[in-house]
Design goal:
With 234 residues, the chain is an alpha+beta fold. Helix content is 30%, strand content 33%. Strands 1, 2, 3, 4, 5, 6, 7, 8, 9 and 10 form a ten-stranded antiparallel β-sheet that branches. It is globular, with a radius of gyration of 18 Å.
């Protein structure tokens, strides 16, 4: 069972999956640069310390992972570069799996979609060495949820992600200024600009697939980055 976008009515386990993917709030996913002279773990601890000073309370952990699939010759248009598909899991949506096509739609599927991908190996090949994930603590501060993740590819630590969720609002542009003000309180000069998915929404209603798109963009950016010392949180 899979669908594009959101569904509102269903039953059983499928109903639960539909319900979780219709929990549309507003999210912003961004990257924090490493701190010169500090390890990634130390930089994460600096961020979480700032959140705790603000009064944020730790509420468990989170994980977002992403596997890359190369489109095979049977689904590639002759004369054009091969396309990629990204299959993503998010602990906020434990019954769902997100499949994002490069420059294309995002499908929301049941968790057994991974099994289906094995059967489709003649069409999409798993680039196993490219699996990437972000994992870390989850904090709540008033109406905000903040997830500070350590991004890894295999045994290699690649960076730091910050996801900020504003729970009461589903219209992105209505709450962006408030979200930005909150992020500035602990991210400082590394507060991100408005995500591209916000401006791409015609109705302005945020959906869980928009979060998946932001993580896909962040992971692809991190994959391409060269390892070099940069200044960061101070």
């Amino acid at each position: 069972m899979y669908h594009i976008g959101r569904k509102t009515e269903s039953t059983g386990e499928v109903g639960k999956k539909m319900a979780e993917t219709s929990k549309s709030k507003t999210f912003c996913v961004s990257q924090i640069p490493a701190v010169e002279g500090k390890s990634v773990q130390q930089a994460v601890e600096m961020l979480t310390k700032k959140l705790e000073i603000l009064g944020a309370v730790k509420q468990g952990t989170f994980c977002v992972d992403c596997e890359t699939y190369h489109a095979g010759p049977t689904v590639t248009i002759p004369g054009q570069p091969a396309k990629f598909m990204y299959v993503m899991h998010n602990t906020e949506y434990p019954l769902s799996c997100f499949a994002l096509f490069e420059n294309g739609p995002c499908l929301v599927a049941d968790t057994n979609f991974d099994t289906l991908m094995i059967k489709l190996k003649g069409f999409f090949q798993n680039a196993k060495s490219n699996k990437i994930e972000s994992r870390g603590p989850r904090y709540q501060y008033a109406d905000f949820l903040v997830k500070v993740g350590t991004v890894t590819m295999g045994p290699s630590v690649r960076g730091i992600s910050v996801e900020v969720e504003y729970c009461p609002c589903i219209v992105s542009n209505d709450c962006w200024n408030l979200m930005m003000e909150f992020m500035q309180s602990f991210m400082g000069s590394h507060t991100p600009g408005i995500p591209s998915v916000f401006s791409a929404k015609h109705d302005g209603i945020y959906a869980p697939t928009d979060t998946a798109v932001q993580y896909m963009e962040l992971f692809n950016k991190i994959r391409k980055q060269q390892q070099a010392p940069v200044s960061g949180i101070r």
